[in-house]
Amino acid sequence: MRLLDEFTAQQTRRAFLGSGVLGLGSIAMGSLLHASERHASEDVPTGIPHFAPKAKRVIYLFQSGGPSQMDLFDYKPELAKRFGEEVPTSVYPAERKTTMTSGQKSFPVAPSMFKFAQHGEAGIWLSENLPHLAEVIDDVCVIKSMHTEAINHDPAATLFQTGSVIAGRPSMGAWVNYGLGTENANLPAFVAMTSNGTAKAGQPLYDRLWGAGFLPGQFQGVKFRGQGDPILDLYNPAGVTRQQRRRMLDSLRKLNRERADQFNDPTITTRIAQYELAYRMQMSVPELIDFKSEPQSVLDMYGPQATQVGKYAYNCLLARRLAERGVRFIQLYHRGWDAHNNAPKQVPAQCRDTDQPTAALLRDLKQRGMLDDTLVVWGGEFGRTIYCQGKLTDKVYGRDHHPNCFTYWMAGGGIRGGMSYGETDEYSVNVVEKPVHVHDLQATILRQLGIDHERLTYRYQGRYFRLTDVHGKVIKDIIA
Fold first, then answer.
1. Which tens digits make up the pLDDT trace of 3-40?
2. pLDDT of residue 110
3. Which of 16, 138, 298, 417 yields a CA-CA distance of 20 to 30 A from 168?
4. 48-230+301-478 is classed in which CATH architecture?
5. What CA–CA distances, in Å, run from 251 to 245, 318, 446?
6. E strands within 197-325?
7. Around Cβ 11, how many Cβ atoms within 10 Å?
8. Where are the domains of the chain?
9. Entry pTM
């Protein structure tokens, strides 16, 4: 009964607050998602930002499938001498292998076949697969000591996106939206986009990765589709004017308001707000996705796929356009990094998709004076094994999942550029210096937005939840 009483009181309070604001009519509803009024109908965190933010927005370039750290960032030249040797069980114990390789009789060392060189003032080592990133590496902080507990794709990706391996928690973008709201009421505060690598389709991406979980539904990410119109029903049907659409929404809002008052259901209030956002997006999104105003030099910088809807390059350019229009959290997912069978073929193919557009995004933001207050994050759900999955040859090797160490990088938004942080052992199997956990990364992202990760909480099922659970430390060494 105690939980029921709490739930009833919570519902009644929300209904009261909602009716007090929404009763002002369409003018108040039209500004519902402005930062000053975005939580008018919900229990809200107070005092956010907790301190002066260094970043206004985040662009998270999630590389789904697990990029191979030793083929891209974690240079281990001595392993060339150990080609084909067994990785010692003292370094890589059996219990940390997936079922896909745990039954192998042999675990031979598969050194990277790619050439590495030092770049930038700090001499950061990069693979030959990243020539464009090499040109802007002085703006990038490479974190080589990431680690996680999850060893399979879905729980590992869910942990990075929501702070838990258990599905159903709010995504990072939803937490940011809940805490900070949007700077532009005509666009969502949180947008998600997906693209596929040319090498392979990759792992499934579920809507819950950008969902609101137990937060009110209005804080979930809005997914832009990768084909056709980015938002369904973006344009009114033939014969329906904008004035007619407005009258229809006014009538629908009145009916929804009556139902919300009757049942004290906060999801109805959320639905009203989403209808209004969709109405405003009918005016803002067509201009957003019209690349005709982009100079040819900018399109060339992003590469030949910059104008192909659904491609990674297109999404990177769209991310910049969203960022400059005040969207708070922009999430790109690029699939195809799951190189189990033929890393020498798959890794270069993925880099051909992503390297030029990623570097162009950094360069574009910097040219516009936006990199200083835009935090760009790049990385996947885990890394890859140094031992070969399947048969090892001098031209072909596969790599299994590896959670013990892998690489992320961050740029802009108050992060120190031209820096390499953390170290792994001689096999690129374990972190030996300055470990960074998933929750540490999340705490740092929130910190740059002016949020104390321990204070951004939401009460659900009798306790307070947060993105970083009961863990997480800000990586202070990489903050400028």
1. 444 444 444 444 444 434 433 333 333 333 333 334 43
2. 98
3. 16
4. 3-Layer(aba) Sandwich (3.40)
5. 10, 34, 40
6. 222-224
7. 14
8. 1-25+39-43+239-288, 48-230+301-478
9. 0.88
